[in-house]
Amino acid sequence: MFVATLRWEYRVTPASSTMRFACVSDPGEYRDLTRDQATTSAWYFDQSAPIAAASREAFELVQLTVNGKARTIRRTERKDAQLYTASLGTTALNGEPVVVAYTYRVLVQRHGHVLYLDLPRPSKGLNVQFNYGDAGIRRVTTLDFIASAESTRVEHTPDSVPTRSVDIGFDWWFFPRSSVAFVWVLEDEI
Fold first, then answer.
1. Virtual CA dihedral for 43, 114, 121, 81, nearest 10 degrees?
2. pLDDT per residue over 122-162, tens digit each?
3. What is the DSSP secondary-structure string of 28-85?
4. In angstroms, what CA-CA distances link 139 with 131, 144, 162, 184?
5. Fewer CB atoms near the end CB (10 Å): N or C, the chain?
6. Residues 48, 164: Cα–Cα separation, whole Å
7. Above 80 in pLDDT, residue 93?
8. Closest by alpha carbon to 84, among 64, 107, 109?
9. Which domain holds residue 128?
10. Residue 96 phi/psi, 5° resolution?
């Protein structure tokens, strides 16, 4: 397993004043959360892992900003689950688009070879950064499932940079349930 740091940034007109992020180990609860419009992001963490889904080692929302201003993040946990909430503040409630950015860390199975991320809301503009520096990964390929005549920007850090990452950017509107995926080859597989 390795820790992946993901940073999301996009422009959106919020439908709610609160963003919610969940990490759960029950597949049924995960499916329910992905369909719940009040949940910004749900992360499924397999029960077979030696770490519980309620642990900050499994998932942690590190930062959330609205128009560049940090928002307070609250965390609650229960057996096999945790929930993060953040108020977007009054700026997000005036019906105007805002830039929302958040960063979270997740524990990912190295031998799974894929990290698949759903884009839950219609939005304009997207930037996703996947850092994989000390994960024993040789190469990362990206896939984007965004229906558009415009293409995404994909930027890889040079091989000489020790903190390896891949950035995916998209400047146009995209529909909910669009997605991006990172697929990798491990060093010890070459």
1. 0
2. 888 888 888 887 788 888 999 999 988 889 999 999 988 88
3. HHHHHHHH-TT-SEEEE--TTSSS-TTSTTTEEEEEEEETTEE--EEEEEETTEEEEE
4. 12, 17, 13, 6
5. C
6. 28
7. no
8. 64
9. 2-189
10. -95, 150
> 104-122, pLDDT tens digit by residue?
999 888 788 888 888 877 8
Paired sense of beta strands 18-24 and 41-44, if any:
parallel
Torsion of the alpha carbons at 33, 35, 37 and 43, rounded to the nearest 10: 40
- Total count of domains within the chain: 1
Greatest CA span in the chain, whole angstroms?
A: 53
Written as six digits, the tokens of 5 are 């740091």
Per the listing, tokens 């759960």 go with: 24
Record the tokens describing residue 40, joined without a space. Answer: 């910004």
Rg of the chain (C-alpha set): 17
